[in-house]
Amino acid sequence: MGLFIGTGVGSAYARARRGWADYQTVKKTVPGARRTAWLLIKVATTKIGVIALLLVGAVAYAAVGSDGEPAPTPTPSPSATPSTRAGR
């Protein structure tokens, strides 16, 4: 009878010890994982910020236009020329 009770208690104790060891291992790795997660978030937000600034700059440049090129002049169409009548 003692053998059955001892086996049950012993296996429960071994399971509890393994669980406690696993808990301690994970508890020690959480700060490192937290630092890694924040680092990845910083990298992603930095990339998104740079891309957003480049897009805003491109839109602003396109809205203002460049100063080096003259504005195009409209070409007269043939129907827009005034016609003269002889005799008047």
TrEMBL record:
- The domain of life is Bacteria
Keywords from UniProt, A to Z, are: Membrane, Transmembrane, Transmembrane helix
Residue ranges of region Disordered? 66-88
Q: Which residues cross the membrane?
A: 37-64
Spell out the protein name for this chain.
Answer: Uncharacterized protein
Which species does this protein come from? Micromonospora citrea
Which lineage is the organism of this entry classified under, starting from the top rank? Bacteria, Bacillati, Actinomycetota, Actinomycetes, Micromonosporales
